[in-house]
Amino acid sequence: MPNFNLGALVGSGCDTFMEVAINNNELLEGNISLYPNPATNLIHVTIALQNYADYQLTIHDITGNDVFIKELLLKENEIDISNLPAGVYTYNINNNTTILKQGKLVKL
Q: What is the CATH code for 25-107?
């Protein structure tokens, strides 16, 4: 006869609660976009956050050196990267204290 008791089964994965935390930066990251990627001469950075603050885009070469730094003064920013040689770069977008988004950028 089936047991329809809906309680936890001791010893199974169902008898344990797991604590799940969401990092605030993960929530913020979804509201910041950098496109197109790959890019040729221009990239766009859009920041769709309610409390807009001072943000900065930093682009690093493959060795980690800063090769481009730009203050992001608007919610939608068009940035000229035509002076960067073709290659793969990493970038981060931060406020004064926290990296809010980071990733790779391909310059064609």
A: 2.60.40.3080
